[in-house]
Amino acid sequence: MQISQVEVIPLELTLQQPVRMANLPEIKQVSAIFIRIETLDGLNAWGCAIAHPNLTGESAANALRICRAGADLVPDLHPTNLEYSLAELAPVVNASLAARCAFDLAFHDLLGLAAGMPLYRLLGGYRNRIQTSATIPISSIQESVERAKARAAHGFRMLKIKGGLDPEEDVQRVRAISKTLPGIILRLDTDGGYSIQQALDVARALEGKLEMIEQPTPFDDLEAMRQVTSQSPVPILADQSVTGPESALGLAANRAANGVSIKVACCGGLRCARQIDAIARAARMVLMVSCVIEPALLIAAGLSFALSSPNVRYADLDGHLDLLADPTIPGFLLEDGWLVATDSPGLGCRVGLEQ
What we know:
This protein is α/β, with parallel strands linked by helices. The protein has helices at 60-71, 82-93, 97-115, 119-123, 141-153, 167-180, 196-205, 222-231, 245-253, 264-267, 270-282, 296-308; strands at residues 3-19, 27-39, 44-51, 129-131, 134-136, 158-162, 185-189, 212-214, 236-238, 259-263, 286-290, 312-315, 328-329, 333-335, 338-340, 350-351.
């Protein structure tokens, strides 16, 4: 088997409606970069990444430039010697998390295609389905309730409520949704928007109504998160504080959170996600596999990882639902809030971008 061609395809994807997050400008569209690797015997593997200054900390221009530089090296690499190929690419692509992610996914997809096996089985095959939450963006309390009702009507039984701008309003928002949908599991994600005291006040006010609070305090203040975790009656998960294995190790060593949220798009791909998983397992910290606003190809990668490990307790893989014109044709199923894998090899997706 030999790689014959590599394509790098940038794409601007618009959201159905703008999204607000704590301390960030409104997000209306994201830049996606797709990579296609073709072999001489006709296999087509796909990788994907997101570049957005406010979501991944990287400009699309930088990510695209590095992806194109990496693509020049790929035809000389071995299609199924994954560790070797990614190591050979590292000196070029390590300057861009998006580029690392895109090539990481493409080579994992190629390995699954060559083996004729779905990737989640190659990575471990612990389960074949997982329940996911659906996200409720920051909006007025009434609008949040209406969006929550709409998600519940589509079968979701877990909702992640965005907050972080106004702690008192966040409490009211969660209580209003809980009252309207009493059987729904609720999570609160404040994207680092609280002080220590605000986080503890919210946790105590919502004890019994929340499954977890995600990233309550600023991303770069490990001590603040540790203090919240040690006193909160609600489990605390770190999200943006974890950017790779090194930061996960520091988090685990300081017992700064009860668990870790991993985004494949933000940590550089599946290889890095598995390294963080190993650290979390050793520290007896649970995992959530999450996402940014991203195409279904990236969701398929996160799902493959989530299904592979027994340490993954939570999933938040809904970032594709509100994207317009996503070229991905997913192989996974979404059934009443459950993501279900199929036996399609590799990532299991087709992408309508072949030129």
